[in-house]
Amino acid sequence: MGRIKKTSNKVLVHPSEASPKKRRKGAQPTAGNTTLPVIDKIKERAKQQHKHANSTRKNYGSYIDHGQKWLKVHASTTGCQDEESHSGDAYEDLTFRDALDKIPNQHSDKALALFISYKCFHENNGQSTCDGIHAAFKKYWEEAASNTYRGKWHFNETRKCWEGNPACSAEVQDVIKSVRHKTNSEGSDRTHSIAMSKGFMDRILTWVHKCCPSETYMALLRTLITRIVMYQAFSTTAWNLWTRCFELIKLKRKDLTIDPSEPLSTKDLHARFEVFLSNRKGWQRKVDKGLKEADLRSNRYKVYPQPDMPGCDCFFWMLLWLALLERIHYNGELEPNDFIFPAIGSNGIVHRGEHISHDAMQAWIDKATTGAGIPRGGGDSFTTHTYRRGGAQWRWMFAPVGERWTLARVRWWGSWAENENRDTLIRYLLDELSTYENDHSDALCPTQNEADGSLLGERQLVKPTCSQDLQLMQQFITADVADLQSDIRILTNTLVSCRNGQPSSTEPLVQRPLCAGTSLPRESPTFVPQQTVPASAPSRTLNPITNSAGTTNFGSRPLPEKGLDIPNLPVRCADGSYAPKKDSWRYIVRHWTEADPRRGLHVALRDWPAKWLKGKNKAIFGSKYHQRALIALEFLEQYQGNESAFLAAYPEYEEGHTALLTAVKRAKKDREEIIPRK
């Protein structure tokens, strides 16, 4: 017996009265007014907001606004009627003034060609201005009315209207080609981004060590230390991760994955942290197409210590920069949305909510490469793209044998797509190798690398030694041994003469040049004032003056052997303790009149010449020297060295030299010896 289907109790309900569906997680509630015109406005607003980057949209808008204002001024009735106007000209048409509006007309191509000609030929702007104007109006008209103004500019005979994009017309393209030929014929500088090799990175690290002051002056140069460490963190990260400038300057703390439970040490070669480049070029395109399973790990890079490459060790410099940023500048941990490379003002203040600009980073690169003495050819320059080129070339062909990467790994690490144009990889890798192998600029070198005979000239490393090479080696060894024997002979004669109490008639050993391969022992870095030589001064050798005591004089007064220094207060005693603050004024007077070599003061302060307080020394010693002079001269000149009267007038001496200095300034102001600043 079959089952009887029950009558359905469902009642049809109008959609407007139906209960709302469960909203998807993350979806935003919508307003009640969802008519088609409202949705159309939402669509247009979303296209304007998300189709192009903010900077691109802003630049395009500037070109369009300028062009429209320019045309309306020049197409006015007073500007169009001139001696060369003829009846029937397009300029006399009243619609010509609207040719650069959102809806183009029959004069739009001519108007755009005139605007480009005015900017590039009349105002003599370059190729970049021409390309910017063309791209701006092309996008402007493409988005005007769906597909109407896309493609070739032509007149539709059937519809009796103009269609296509005026920016693609033959007249506009001819003007663009003319601007390009003009730019090339005027001999514009050829710009080529030099690859930042590992050798260049090491030379910059050496320059950084020279720039860093000793611990005595580090507190006074906080801004310099901050910029140096930040530059090293940026450059080593860009070199290892092959980033472009805009990809790295927007890096935030949330893009770094550092496990706080695992201590990070450069001695542990397996320690690591992870970097996610959320602004990597092409990443948005991958998101738009839909992420694959293989893309989930894209743009995520694990960074490990590289102690054998200190100039390229991103692990060390990044952690050092984060520690400096948190402990010195922020006094706390970074927030997830804080930039890793924030903007730094001229006064050294870090702007937490603003990332460093492209121009500022380019200025640091120029300063570092110039300071390191890295050569460059005409038209060559170090840009923020040099790290990407240099890192890719090192990993693929310049790294030691056994450490070079395959082309597949290079493609993944550089985030090049699988269908990436082969010319891009060729420009980064193979072109550099081809240039090296076909370079014959060192044809006059006695030892040829024979780069065209093997990969990177490696054949030279395994080439059998010939008799000529052995003869050259023997000559160099013989010359070095002869110099060494001569030095030993002179040293022996000197020791024998000293033992017998007779002056040696032989030439002192210190005046002979050192043998090849011999180096002087390193000493701790000390600060020595340098004399400034005008650029216009003729090149000459300055011979130091040697007095009877054997010391070397530079000018009228010899520089201290161990550099300049003004002891800090309160002074430190021999047992490691500090002298009482109430005695600080006595040390100030003593250092003004007497030297204190044990504490680094080799010349009394009153005997310092003016040139010792100029140039770089002014920022280091100027304020401290002036303060010591105020207190010492107040005691010696104003009170004639009367200790009881001085102490009675300034009881602040018991609080230390800072309180005493304030009291002395107040007294000199009352005596009108100091004019206060307005």
Textual characterization of the structure:
The chain is extended, with a radius of gyration of 37 Å. About 10% of the residues have low confidence. The chain has a 3-stranded antiparallel sheet with strand order 4-5-6, with no helix packed on it. A two-stranded antiparallel sheet has the order 1-2. The protein has 678 residues and is mostly helical. 42% of the residues lie in helices and 5% in strands. Helix 5 packs antiparallel against helix 6.
Question: Nearest-angstrom radius of gyration?
Answer: 37 Å
The count of strands amounts to 11
Largest sheet data: 3 strands, antiparallel
Shape: extended
Query: Strand order within the widest sheet?
Result: 4-5-6
Look at the helices and sheets and give the structural class.
Answer: mainly alpha
Spatial gap, N to C terminus: 112 Å
Low-confidence stretches: 78-88, 503-562
Count of discrete alpha- or pi-helical segments spanning 4 or more residues: 20
Name the beta content range: under 5%
